[in-house]
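With this grant's support, we have settled on a layout for protein records. A representative record follows, to show the layout.
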Amino acid sequence: MSNIKSSESKVSQILVTKRISTTAIMVGVGLVLSYLNPFAYITIFGAKINPFAHVVNAIMGVLVGPIYALVTATIIAALRFSLAIGTIHAFHGGMSGAIVVGIFAYYLWKRTPKYVDLAALSEPIGTIFIGGTIAQLITPTGGIGAIFTWWGLFAASCIPGCVIGFVILLALRKADISREDFFEK
């Protein structure tokens, strides 16, 4: 009996180690894509339109779930903000999108596992509607109609990013890397 518990414990430790390692790697990837790719973003109304930040959110939410995706988005936002290569909007835009992708991935994985990668395309729900609304609350740009400006800005960034992330997830699946590598059945 203790051998079974010991082997289950080792499997759990390995999976947690994989999630933490992937989080660390993707923080680096997200930061490098933000910093070394100055032509990949445009600044409008103080928001940097950077699709590559959303690529990381889409991939992490599907592969490692909402908690590790949230940690990844938060660390990337903090580093980008502290290095002056991101704005305050990186926090609420990235974090909300990462959580939504992670939650959608969890439910898709429980109900129809073969469609779990489609959760990457849910990132705009969190980024546009939650993140964009928070942006209007933090830096109001006018009346109630100005919220549509923020939604548009966040959509310009996250829609291309989550589509790229989805395509990368499909490529990873062909390379035999998927959510199943990070969670027990």
User: Anything to note?
Assistant: The helical segments are 2-35, 51-64, 66-82, 89-111, 123-138, 147-174. The chain has one domain: 9-181. The longest helix spans residues 2-35.
